[in-house]
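We were asked to recover a plausible sequence for a given structure. The inputs and outputs are reproduced exactly as logged, with field labels preserved.

PROBLEM: sequence recovery
POSITIONS: 456
GIVEN STRUCTURE:
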């Protein structure tokens, strides 16, 4: 049906004109002679007031239940109070009724409760704002790479290898639950692909292959990890951005990562000012200022060994003790970013044994040319490295980790045919969303979160 987006009314340019709007009723004040509906159609965080004069407006009688979908026709006028606008309705039409057991009757619900009704929580201000920020953030990511000459490639979701080598993959199969295969080989030989297959944990390995022809590429899509974790930062399905750049060493990719983060945060500050102000007020005081500091600051680059020394000399009692060779925990990352530097920090040159097999080994034989970008309030949001191009070193690491080298034949072949230095990183969309919204749980920055034991 012909109607105008509510968002387009708030600049006041259509005041005095006849308009038709559609939306869901968010609040209703009803009296003997008048009724005031606030409706929202999803195009704006702000609600539009529809004023019903019962002596003039027609069709309103069954159009006041919260959650109902309506169409309102009338004249756009300046609001009686404040600087906004409202519609003096001449006619209201019920499009979809809503019964009294509508779960969203209260003005405020806990985030925990809202997770039990994911099909309806999107109608709250919080999820209205989050989804709009997610949309703008995603588009800004594409825009950054497109403006800088990257080719967008679509790497496979079904894969025969585990990029991280950790075994945390979901299997893909067409076998029945009661398959009678007598051996593992027989089981996979008779499956759809004739071999073990799973959902990808990363598009990096295929992305490297594309970069060896196209120079600069990026992927942006869903990834999956069968990690039995119930933390606020982990989900079984999440979206990841992975650029891969040929002829780039670690310093080059660090520069690209910093530029990307500043670009996309600035886009959100500029294009989602109302939403960020909402999150600043409701979820994280000082959020706007925090984000501005990120855009304006120069990120710190800190060697892992130096980071460990800072932590050991801090005098703080950490839950997880700190020694050289340990993987930094969130409490360590937050101390470094929040209490020491008060800005994002790239920690570089991690111990080889705690990082992925594909990372370039440094001359010391103990560390790799890798970095994690740590940010205040969250910890790690980017994992980044230069890739190893020495075939013998790669095979040695894979064998140490009991990986099946034959599953990576095409990946290894890249080192044979015109190998060059190249680097890349992975940025979790949900992680950066947590950072820019101040929301505290990954389940609240996804439309339908997929976590252990939860498939609503």
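RECOVERED SEQUENCE:
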């Amino acid at each position: 049906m012909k109607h105008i987006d509510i968002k387009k009314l708030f600049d006041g340019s259509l005041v005095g004109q006849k308009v038709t709007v559609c939306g869901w009723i968010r609040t209703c004040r009803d009296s003997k002679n008048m009724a005031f509906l606030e409706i929202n159609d999803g195009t704006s965080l702000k609600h539009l007031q529809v004023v019903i004069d019962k002596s003039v407006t027609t069709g309103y009688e069954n159009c006041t239940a919260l959650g109902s979908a309506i169409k309102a026709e009338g004249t756009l006028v300046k609001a009686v109070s404040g600087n906004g606008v409202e519609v003096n309705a001449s006619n209201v039409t019920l499009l979809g009724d809503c019964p009294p057991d509508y779960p969203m009757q209260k003005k405020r619900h806990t985030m925990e409760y809202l997770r039990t009704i994911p099909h309806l929580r999107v109608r709250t201000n919080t999820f209205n704002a989050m989804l709009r920020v997610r949309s703008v953030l995603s588009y800004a990511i594409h825009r950054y790479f497109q403006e800088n000459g990257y080719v967008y490639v679509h790497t496979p979701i079904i894969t025969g290898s585990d990029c991280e080598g950790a075994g945390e993959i979901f299997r893909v199969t067409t076998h029945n639950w009661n398959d009678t295969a007598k051996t593992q080989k027989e089981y996979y030989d008779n499956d759809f692909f004739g071999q073990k297959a799973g959902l990808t944990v990363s598009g990096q390995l295929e992305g490297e292959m594309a970069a060896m022809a196209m120079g600069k590429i990026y992927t942006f899509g869903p990834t999956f990890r069968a990690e039995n974790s119930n933390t606020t930062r982990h989900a079984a399905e999440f979206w990841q951005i992975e650029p891969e750049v040929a002829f780039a060493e670690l310093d080059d990719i660090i520069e690209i990562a910093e530029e990307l983060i500043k670009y996309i945060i600035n886009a959100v500050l500029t294009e989602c000012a109302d939403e960020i102000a909402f999150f600043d007020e409701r979820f994280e005081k000082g959020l706007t200022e925090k984000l501005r500091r990120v855009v304006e600051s120069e990120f710190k680059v800190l060697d892992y060994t130096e980071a460990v020394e800072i932590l050991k000399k801090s005098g703080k009692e950490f839950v997880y003790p700190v020694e050289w060779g340990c993987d930094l925990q969130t409490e360590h990352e937050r101390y470094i970013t929040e209490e020491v530097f008060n800005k994002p920090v790239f920690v570089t040159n991690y111990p080889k044994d705690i990082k992925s097999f594909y990372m370039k080994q440094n001359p010391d034989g103990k560390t790799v040319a890798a970095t994690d970008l740590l940010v205040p309030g969250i910890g790690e949001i980017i994992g980044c490295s230069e890739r190893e191009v020495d075939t013998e070193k790669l095979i040695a690491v894979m064998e140490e980790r009991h990986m099946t080298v034959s599953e990576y034949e095409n990946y290894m072949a890249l080192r044979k045919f015109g190998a060059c230095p190249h680097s890349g990183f992975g940025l979790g969309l949900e992680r950066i969303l947590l950072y820019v919204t101040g929301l505290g749980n990954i389940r609240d920055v996804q439309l339908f979160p997929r976590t252990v034991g939860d498939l609503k």
